[in-house]
Amino acid sequence: MSTPTQSLTAPAGAERPAPEGAVDVSVVIPCLNEAETIEQCVTTAVRVLEENGIPGEVLVVDNGSDDGSGELAERAGARVINEPRRGYGQAYLTGFAAARGDRIVMADADLTYDFGDIPRFLAKIDEGAELVMGNRMAKIHPGAMPWLHRYLGNPVLTGILNLFFGAGIKDAQCGMRAFRRDVLPKLDLQTTGMEFASEMVIRAAKEKVAIAQLPIEYHPRGGESKLSTWRDGWRYLRLLLVHSPTHLFLLPGAILFVLGSLILVTVLARLNVFGRQWDIHTMIGGAMLTIVGTQVLALGLCARAYGVFVLREDDERFRRWGERLKLEQGLLAGAAILVAGLALGGVVVGKWIQRGGGELSEARLGLLAATLVIVGIQVFFSSFLLSILSLRRSD
């Protein structure tokens, strides 16, 4: 295995090595201790390329195996890249950077996928797709997928991904895919773990990449599974939330703010709710919800601004909104809320002085004043942060 390890800091879309002969397709296979299956995977992939007259290569990324998987893959006809840093995503990032083909097919080394489907994936690319996703849910062989993954994990995570990003994918975790190499710079893939599979779909959906889907069979794996159900499931979900400030920040923030404001109004207006009047302790809860909601909303707007103006994500509506609203408008709004809170605080202090000091009797008004002061300060300084993040919008 004489091929050198690729630079770990190079982006996935980095310039590939000079071709050694005509290579149209690179079949990239990550491998970690798959001695039981890697030879058969490589042999099948090489045969399929040859039988279909496809100029291609099989590239195996040995991700630190200690069972001789790399030597077996090389002997079977693969070009082997050593990648000592562990991680499903890291293996693929290294493989993509080293691949020579203009079209790349990715599949696991555990015999769960049929390499005979490679021509079908490539045909979809020839029809105009930029990314082709396999759909295992069409035919899962007995024993190939645990019940928890088949009926809960995969449908839930795929459903959340589609809800957040409108991808319309039936099986977001399928590991057999194909794509045009020139789409890699747009995807700008970064994650190094199992969540890499979801990141590719999320980025493709955000960048409006042309996605096609292909029903495939899913077979029982050979060897030991590397997937950790709960740990990797959480990493998938965490990635979905991080990539969607709307669902992570904006919606929860808006709900908290509206609920808190309604509670404040209800207590101040002495309205009967559920047959009783709510008092100061309920108002404290409302004030807390309002303040937290404002902060979470501000975080969401800043996260969205970072995505649009710094990461160049495609959100024309937010971009237009950001161009219309100026820093001074946010500062004025924050200052107005702050002044209102200080004015109410002044009224409370005035009444307290007028009554000769002692116990403060304007608890409701004082709590409202404190809430307005805090919210005003949040709006004022969050406006500055939004302005900083949007400095690059004219680049």
Provide a descriptive summary of the structure in words.
The longest helix is centred in the C-terminal third of the chain and has 31 residues, at 280-310. 53% of the residues lie in helices and 12% in strands. The chain has 395 residues and is an alpha/beta fold. The protein is built from 13 helices and 9 strands. The strands form 2 sheets. Strands 3-2-1-4-6-5-7 form a 7-stranded mixed sheet, with helices on both faces. The chain folds into 2 domains: 25-242, Spore Coat Polysaccharide Biosynthesis Protein SpsA, Chain A, CATH 3.90.550.10; 245-394, no CATH class. Mean pLDDT is 87; it is low at 1-16. Helix 5 (147-165) packs parallel to helix 8 and helix 10 runs parallel beside helix 13. It has helices at residues 38-51, 69-75, 88-98, 118-126, 147-165, 184-187, 196-206, 229-242, 245-268, 280-310, 316-324, 327-354, 363-389; strands at 25-31, 56-62, 79-82, 103-106, 131-140, 177-180, 211-218, 272-273, 276-277.
Mean pLDDT: 87
- What are the secondary-structure elements, in order, as H or E? EHEHEHEHEHEHHEHHEEHHHH
**How large is the share of residues in beta strands?**
5-15%
Number of helices: 13
Name given to the CATH homologous superfamily of the largest domain = Spore Coat Polysaccharide Biosynthesis Protein SpsA, Chain A
Low-confidence spans: 1-16
Whole-number total of structural domains? 2
What structural category characterises the helix and strand content? alpha/beta
| Order of strands, widest sheet | 3-2-1-4-6-5-7
Helical amount among residues, as a percent range? Answer: 40-55%
Known CATH architecture of the largest domain: Alpha-Beta Complex
Largest beta-sheet characterization: 7 strands, mixed
Supply Rg: 28 Å
Which descriptor suits the 3D outline? elongated
